[in-house]
Design a protein that fits this description.
alpha/beta; 425 residues; 4-stranded mixed sheet; 11 strands; single chain
Length: 425
């Protein structure tokens, strides 16, 4: 990760965690804090944002995989709590400081360093280094000491989604550059659609605008932070991202409620045919193929500089701070990221992170073609990069600056400067 000074809050939580650890008795039978021979029945606490009780492909796959793991490991039970990303970000540091972190939890790639700096992770066991077939490098999933704290659960990157029916209606072809996106979006807006869907709400950790920004910075080769971990992206390359948004605003191609629109607003708009285009993560491709076949996807448009390579992102799995069941926790993580579970996960549209998974029989069937094409795209059109421990501050800064861009007429350059200033407060 990028080294950055810890905030007083994080330092306070770390100090509280140390005091609690000092007062707690050692558990030699489990190898001490963070150890664990895991002899006898073990119940793992697990936080996941997915609710396996729901009836959708991703939830069904999660439920099936947990049941299969428990069947294969009868001495290990998994106690799952459904926790949103926003709640995880606020609750994990507190839980770790109180010695109550879950044994295993999922975390979104950009926020792994933030949670590591807050002391939410236990180090991965030595056995984790035996896994060598990750499709993308994993060295960026590290804590302040540079040691790896998480492994990929699934991969995704950004792509351009478009409604082919709308483009046909307005006589437009699929745009190849961001300037062409503005032109097509303007035509779609004139026909009564939202030309380009995005949102400046910070209610969901500014997910849609922040992910788009992350991929755009990768495209143009602009670092988001300096070596000290401070946001330092303001400049000509990042200003092009702001200019793109300003041009969409001036073309009246953004949604009328863009200041409060979120990820779900845009994904719903694409699904119901009211949004012509959007840049989203590849995790929606399989779902749209089933719910609205008019929605197609393609590589990111080109900026004036750089190429079409976005950021490699996705959900990860790690072991909670102070877990007394590290061995069992790693066994669960290894299973959930392994070949059999990955094949089941792929039926829900997620891209498995390990090469061995693609040797499973499922990937020889026509049903797997879409996931394989997404995996190929992620491998060829994305690249992992290091994050600082203030991603949420960057994301929030982008949301607030976006609101000012739309409501107060900021230029693209002013938008980028405002976002950077907010991130560094």
């Amino acid at each position: 990760m990028i080294t950055k000074r810890w905030s007083l809050v994080v330092a306070g939580l770390a100090a509280a965690s140390l005091m609690l650890a000092a007062c707690a008795p050692a558990d030699d039978s489990q190898g001490g804090k963070g150890g664990g021979s895991d002899k006898g029945p073990v119940t793992l606490t697990y936080w996941d944002f997915l609710d396996p009780s729901q009836n959708n492909p991703r939830a069904n796959a999660l439920r099936e995989n947990i049941a299969a793991f428990e069947k294969a490991n009868p001495d290990i039970k998994v106690d799952l709590s459904v926790v949103s990303l926003g709640d995880m970000l606020s609750r994990l540091p507190q839980a770790a400081a109180a010695g109550q972190a879950p044994d295993v939890f999922k975390m979104f790639t950009p926020t792994v360093p933030q949670m590591a700096a807050a002391g939410a992770y236990s180090p991965l066991p030595a056995a984790a280094s035996d896994v060598k077939d990750w499709l993308r490098p994993v060295n960026t999933l590290a804590g302040p000491d540079g040691k790896q704290v998480a492994v990929p659960y699934e991969y995704r990157t950004c792509s351009l989604y478009y409604n082919q029916k709308i483009l046909d209606k307005i006589g437009a072809t699929v745009p190849k550059t961001y300037d062409e996106v503005v032109d097509v979006a303007a035509k779609a807006a004139a026909a009564g659609y939202t030309g380009f869907g995005t949102g400046f709400s910070d209610t969901d950790n500014s997910a849609i605008i922040a992910t788009f920004f992350d991929c755009f910075m990768s495209q143009v080769g602009q670092d988001i932070w300096n070596k000290d971990g401070h946001a330092a992206f303001a400049g000509a390359k990042a200003a092009e991202f702001g200019d793109f948004l300003a041009k969409l605003r001036d073309a009246k191609a953004l949604g009328s409620s863009v200041v409060s629109d979120s990820y779900s607003t845009v994904t719903d708009g694409l699904a119901n045919g009211t949004v012509a285009m959007a840049v989203l993560g590849t995790e929606r491709i399989v779902t749209y193929g089933k719910t609205n076949p008019d929605i197609k996807w393609t590589a990111l448009p080109k900026a004036s500089t750089g190429g079409q390579t976005g950021a490699t992102i996705g959900w990860t799995m790690g072991i909670g701070a102070g877990s007394k069941h590290v061995d069992a926790a790693w066994k669960f993580i290894e299973y959930m990221t392994g070949a059999k579970a990955g094949a089941v996960m792929a039926t829900g549209g997620e891209v498995p992170p390990r090469a061995s998974t693609y040797k499973e029989s499922y990937f020889s069937t026509p049903e797997a073609d879409t996931v394989k094409s997404i995996a190929d795209y992620v491998k060829s059109n994305s690249k992992p990069h290091a994050y600082s421990d203030n991603w949420i501050a960057v994301a929030s800064g982008l949301s607030h600056a976006g609101q000012s861009l739309y409501l107060n007429g900021l230029t693209g350059k002013e938008f980028i400067s405002a976002a950077q200033d907010a991130a560094n407060k």
